[in-house]
């Protein structure tokens, strides 16, 4: 019976969010208010809220409660390599790239591990905030081996780096390994992005390889969690 009750709460609130009865930013009743309204325990209510949270319907802010997320998210493919410009063109959205820095400096120990190079080897560091429909919602931190990419500039970074690398430099970019996690947002995230009250951010780490299997780029792409859903196509393999 308890399982039916928590699913009832989940279904009613997910339907209200989908139908627009509950708008993005709306605050849900507290656990005690929901428990009283549904005649159930706070444990059952908490189970329903956790499911709404996991499915991306709500965001929990400690000490403040649960708030409805914007369900009109942009699809970001897990498989495949797509640049920000290509994604924005696909969405048909107004976009802008804001370059914070383009630096050429020694890798240091952390980057050296990611790029599998000596720590004194030079890398290009490019930091860019991505704005879609007037909101800065992606922070891209790209690192390129300088022995493979000898020159970058702010002007190049404001456009499409992949267009420059492939068309101007003739590099054959082939594949990437991606790691996706949800992590606490940093001071840099809050200073460069419009994060509102969100305390966490989706981080996509890309290790990008050339056609000759050489690792030449490491990227941290940091996304505001209410604006994206990461999609893939999967096919079951029959054994």
Key structural traits:
239 residues; alpha+beta; Arc Repressor Mutant, subunit A; Chorismate lyase; 6-stranded antiparallel beta sheet; two-stranded antiparallel ribbon; 8 helices; Bact_HTH_transcr_reg; transcription regulation; repressor
Describe the structure.
With 239 residues, the protein is of the alpha+beta class. It folds into two domains: 5-68, Winged helix-like DNA-binding domain superfamily/Winged helix DNA-binding domain (Arc Repressor Mutant, subunit A, Orthogonal Bundle), CATH 1.10.10; 84-223, Chorismate lyase-like (Chorismate lyase, 3-Layer(aba) Sandwich). It has eight helices and ten strands. The chain has helices spanning 2-19, 31-38, 42-54, 84-91, 108-115, 154-158, 161-168, 187-192; strands at residues 58-61, 65-68, 74-77, 95-106, 122-132, 135-145, 173-184, 200-210, 215-224, 228-231. Helix 1 (2-19) packs across helix 3 (42-54) and helix 2 (31-38) crosses helix 3. The longest helix is centred in the N-terminal third of the chain and has 18 residues, at 2-19. The chain starts with a helix and ends in an 8-residue tail after the last strand. 22% of the residues are buried.
Measured by DSSP, the beta-strand proportion falls in 25-35%
CATH architecture of the largest domain: 3-Layer(aba) Sandwich
The secondary structure category is alpha+beta
- Which fold does the CATH topology of the largest domain refer to? Chorismate lyase
What is the approximate shape? elongated
Q: Can you tell me the CATH superfamily of the largest domain?
A: Chorismate lyase-like
Helical fraction:
25-40%
Biggest β-sheet, characterized? 6 strands, antiparallel
Spatial gap, N to C terminus: 38 Å
Low-confidence stretches: none
Secondary-structure element pattern, one letter each: HHHEEEHEHEEHHEHEEE
**CATH top-level class of the largest domain:** Alpha Beta
- Which sequence of strands runs across the widest sheet? 4-5-6-9-8-7
Determine the number of helices (DSSP H or I, runs of at least 4 residues). 8
Q: What is the residue-averaged pLDDT? A: 87
Rg from alpha-carbon coordinates: 21 Å
Return the domain count: 2
Overall strand count: 10
